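Blackboard transcription, Thursday session:
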Amino acid sequence: MPATIVDIKEKTGLSLATISKYLNGGNVLPENRVKIEAAIKELHYEVNELARGLVTNRTRTVGLLVYSIESPFSGMLLHHVGEALRRNGYGMLIVDSCDDEEVERKNVRYLINKKVDGIIALPVASKGDFLSPANNAHVPVVLMDRSLSDAQYDCVRIDNRKSTYYAMKELISRNHKKIAVIASEREYTGRERFNGFMDSMRDAGLDVPADYQVRGTHSIATGYNGMKKLLSLKDRPTGVFMSNYEITLGGMLAMNESGFRSPDDISLLGFDDQLFFHVLQPQVYMVEQPMKAMGEKAVELLLKRIKGTTDEAPMEIAMSTRLQTGNSIKTL
Amino acid sequence: MPATIVDIKEKTGLSLATISKYLNGGNVLPENRVKIEAAIKELHYEVNELARGLVTNRTRTVGLLVYSIESPFSGMLLHHVGEALRRNGYGMLIVDSCDDEEVERKNVRYLINKKVDGIIALPVASKGDFLSPANNAHVPVVLMDRSLSDAQYDCVRIDNRKSTYYAMKELISRNHKKIAVIASEREYTGRERFNGFMDSMRDAGLDVPADYQVRGTHSIATGYNGMKKLLSLKDRPTGVFMSNYEITLGGMLAMNESGFRSPDDISLLGFDDQLFFHVLQPQVYMVEQPMKAMGEKAVELLLKRIKGTTDEAPMEIAMSTRLQTGNSIKTL
DNA sequence: CTGTTAGCGCTTTCAG
DNA sequence: CTGAAAGCGCTAACAG
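(Written on the board underneath:)
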């Protein structure tokens, strides 16, 4: 059995209150402080956060609900979120939804039952009802990367539609007319980026035939199959926009296998810059998200809600992106 | 305030014991079951795992101590570990050590204070003293990927030395004589792979001059700088072994920048296959680890320790790897 | 600054 | 099968 505060009490002859006070950074007579510290060391005492949390009703732990921990994109975000939380004295409880809405539902309950002080969510689902246990328990939620169509939470993300719109200018201004898109239609970001794509084409007066619009899930498979399909069209596009990391990866895979080369045969524009892509030849033009800033902002917003230092209405913060240039786009 | 078991008691007129029994899957009269379920739904009752853990002394939560959550390698491992735990009714509390031993120390205490039932560790440090809080608290630990030089824990990993040795045959049998290595020397895996490399060279009667031995940290920078250095040597190696994912990535980056091509100018052998590498031209020969099997095995071992269904001495399980073939090696 | 006491929400004897 | 009561380890009044 691990040592408890009672063991310290017996060892030092002090009262529980004094020891508790010491543990929480209160003022204690120097001689008592010494006694307590000696006892702690000797008994290998460690605070029981379960007991502490039970009485204080705070755990100083934030739940991170992430759609897939396998995704390098979420790994980066988690890293920055974790650092920001740590600086503020908070830990994070990460749960992996494995891209599965059912798992996600369970994970929310799990976090609530664990009494996290708040939740940062990168959701799988597009509708917010899975978060109702958090609402019932009055646990604040901040969304990241993906917004929800029917719910009001703080949300930190990029401006997907606009970012895509501007990035598309790179293709359009270089005289590409036949441009295809491979996008996820399951989550918010995919749909927004698709919309941004369509906006840019419409404003450029360009048509997008149905078989240039490949829609699927947020997955390597979607990118791979989509690109295969596009390359096999009689009337091949001269440019392709790929709407996220996994799809870009899958698209590149298919390109490599097919023997087509970029930018000679086809020009490419991707999303979610990761160092990995810098290894590729050609270097793909990439829309790059401000990961660190997003992580820090999400933490800032959540901590404000937790501490109740704000009663503002939930806000959507749309950060802007940077276009990482490459050599995957040919001027026609 | 969230509803408690006492609210359920008042709503149903039943006693705490009965409700608790229901919550834990015990037998309750059908009519009482109905009453309880109705009350739970109405009050949005959720179990307080803090209180439960305090009395049962079990949290059904396993701590995951990971050297860097940013690393795609750890992301994959976490995914498989998480699935295996979930199948067994356990959750996971992931903490990111950010490749920093001090953070790692704190993280161990954090996990202990949170009363995890066990820990799966992908450590930063090479020595095991940072785990002493776990020992003091009698919390079982299983290591993954990286072993510790001075401690006795179950460990699930690949046979780094042997895997490297065998993979190196691909270069050696194709008549490469001048082979360089870029390896991490900070952690266990890097050192073992370095040793395997040296073994293979020695057994082949090949010399490895000092400037062919690049050692550094487990990082992209090490791979990048290492490759740059190797490519600038007057007497360039014909083959290079890169000892992990990050180093391989960095090495490829430097290759691309330099204008040298593989396999024409230099043959490459890497470590830690990830889908990403399949996008590259050339496809690099890669040592591939059995991620899923490792994750499952680690969970199996840990749960045995937690449940006390074994009193065997700690064991090291070294799994074998597969060489993913590519076209990055030229026959001389 | 220190001590006493009540109680956080739950499980678990032990009776009935 | 159900109920009453004790107690897990800690904090938070409050009194001294």
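Lecturer's comment: The first strand of chain A starts at residue 61 and ends at 66.
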